[in-house]
Amino acid sequence: MSDGAISQDEIDALLSGVAIDGLNSSGHVGNGPTYHFDIPTLQSMADALKPKLEENINKTTSVTFTCEAPVVEQTNRDHVLSKLPEVVIGINADYNAGVKGSHLYLMAPEFALKIFQLVSSEEATEVDDMVLSVVSEFIATHISAEITEVESKGNTKGLGYATPETLNESKAMIMFPQGDFVLSSYPLTYDGNAYTLWECIGGDAAEGLTKALGGGAADDSAGLTPIDLGGMNAAAGGAPMGGAAMGAAPMGGMQQMGGAMPNMGMGMQQPMGGMPNMGMGMPMGGMGMGMPQNMGVNMGMNVPNVQQLQYPNLQAGLNAGEQGNISLIMDVFMEMTVELGRTKKTIKDILGMGEGTIIELDKLAGEPVDILVNHKKIAKGEVVVIDENFGVRVTEILSPMERVSELN
What we know:
The protein is α+β, with helices and mostly antiparallel strands and about 400 residues long. Among the domains are: about 10-20 and about 335-405, Roll (Surface presentation of antigens (SPOA)), CATH 2.30.330.10; about 40-210, CheC-like (Chemotaxis protein chec). The protein has ten helices and 14 strands. The longest helix has 25 residues, at about 130-155. It starts with 7 loop residues before the first helix and ends with a helix.
């Protein structure tokens, strides 16, 4: 029975902004699967989206942005972190229909503020909920253009994505796709200032989009000639062994090839002339070399020792080394938030708000409030007053299964 405490895996996931995957020997979250993407196909998609991105942002802001040639590359979380400012705007909009997988957009806060200022004709010095709402609408329009482009090039229809979730976070807290993923960088300029919109497409989503576009990763086995052990057709370009002539010398003189040939132990039925028994199990006159099945063993060939792969028990508890990792992060600060409730409003309604406006939330009076750590719900509680300050009394710790579902 769980004691209600947060597990090591959940703490790792909260700190790193990724799915639970355990720590590796270097103290970083596991890298996940490795993919081999068809970058040219995805580059073609990005090139086709370039004018649509220009049209979208120019229509949204009523000014003229210029988009340079996008760059598409296979990368990973560490490489992308090196490109980003310390604080970024992250817009999660995972594909969930037709193609499924992680899908993330990133931009610098300065870019988000510029878009908001141009849309609302108001100055803004910090990123707030109104800025994030405008950015979310802009990205949603661009994703719709991407889906239209993919569906127009292939047979995949009905692509869909989750409602964009926009956050203003430290780059270390952004939930990147697992393992290797595809990064598309769109350089934009306006009024002499350069901005960049980054698009991160997770491995599963990238492979799904590639397939929808009619492309695919190169097959590593292409160009190799299979080895036919029955007829001994050599993949390295040698002549077929079944019925091939082994040189111009008559068989009677083959004992001159470096001296009398030793018995190779293969049970030859009839020695030829002065040639010792090679044991090939067939008449040598016609050189029809139909090999017995145990030829590789008797001739001393290296035969691989094939064993069944044993997978580790993923349900087992953490070992002592992993349990000790928690001591490394005891002094790390994490953002704890108490959420009274939520609601959704159009940009028009938000811009029309003023002093005295009442906003109705989705929580009932007296209903427990949500307690979140780094935007992930871990508990419920009730609001209390401590001296002159508000506080919250924890009334329920979410079960491990509920906490894991919140992390995903």
